[in-house]
Amino acid sequence: MDILSLFIVFPLLTVLVLLGAKSLKQARLIALAGTIVQVGMSVNLLFAYLRERSVNDEIMLFTRDLVWFKDFNIHYSIGVDGISVALLILTSLVVLAGVFISWKMEELPREFFISLIVLSTGVYGFFISLDLFLMFVFFEIAVIPMFLLIGIWGSGPREYAAMKLTLMLMGASAILLVGILGIYFNSGADGGPLTFNILEIAKVQIPVEAQKLFFPLTFIGFAVIGALFPFHTWSPDGHASAPTAVSMLHAGVLMKLGGYGVFRVAMYLMPEGTLHWSWFFIVLAAFGVIYGAFAAIRQTDLKYINAYSSVSHLGLVLFALLMLNKTAWNGAIIQSLSHGFMTALFFALIGMIYERTHTRDVTRLGGLLKVIPFISATYVIGGLASLGLPGFSGFVAEMNIFVGAFQHPEISYRIASIFAVSAIVVTAVYILRVVGMMLMGPLKENSLTPMERATWYEKAGIFLMLLPIIGIGVAPLWLSEMILQSIQPFIQGVL
Question: Where does the NADH:quinone oxidoreductase/Mrp antiporter transmembrane domain start and stop, copy by copy (predicted)?
């Protein structure tokens, strides 16, 4: 079996084994073993990719193509470049960390881990798909389990949050399907057969009017899951009601499908549509960056603070992609990775704090650094990474984004960049505010009772997220080089 199909087959085998689990211990050990193997698979893929890339200059490597539905020219077509490989590693690490953080899950543990792994299977499939129809199928597989994970294992108004998330994402999927079908029915514009294959469509000159019509539909269809303003409202409610591991996957992995789809499909296949509509979506993205940061300041619930922070940080991803140059695109991909690890770390820490204090309200917390020092110190490190301190992944990402943004010759784009840059200051305000209120100062009522220190499995989940944040910040060049090699064919296609 080829190296990429394993990312679909092995998680499904893990699900089948989980069906036979008869206890919490069995379920979590099977889930742990399965997700550890997935991390090993992603690391093996990285080294295999680097070896193959040194001798192979094809756009996609490890490609495989099998006919699925011949009448509509739908294929099981897969392949990866450096961007896909990096996102597969992110996914495998976040899923493994989510299993560690859910170690004490007692309510239907078998079903919980099955839903978690099915979601990750959809994400894996999405990142390796080269056929638009196949990509859409995996997109839906990734989204649907969220309804169950929030509706069954969530807290607070979980039914409302699950329904809102599902309806908005299904609505976006409907719009996306129209966009994909528009691309498909115009893929034979040069006289060839209709196809869903991304690499084949990229060689076709889709009529300009069709690009102008279907680009915004495809962009919005993908960008909604990436929290594009003003379609972001499903995200904070979903985060607030989701269990900890689900919040980690939701923000750390699932929301990355938006930026990836925009880059891989909408922009690459419809370059004229990109140029025509970029100014409009830059306005929305820049407003989302600012709005998310200011909204985070107004919140007192830790999950809502992190959720609105995600709206701001992912707004930067879309903003950078629309700047249409290699530096900004490099920053967008690194920002996706950086945000994935940072936000998963934050949600893991918030879950740990909630378990010990039974509140997420920062106004009711204080002095936690004295009673849970490891968790508190890690929260500070995550906060410094989020506000872009040098030495962490956030700095590398944001420097590339803002340098690339100012390289754009249009003055209006540079003005938008200034607004986006200002979000850094606002981010520092809400991060330092939370750290000061929750971790520093005298102990408050919720912090007076003795608290359990971080357990081994909680520390394992933390380190899985923390090490890449520091690693990318300290040694980013190898990752940046891998990404830039993969960006080159796409920037040529768009410009």
Answer: 129-416
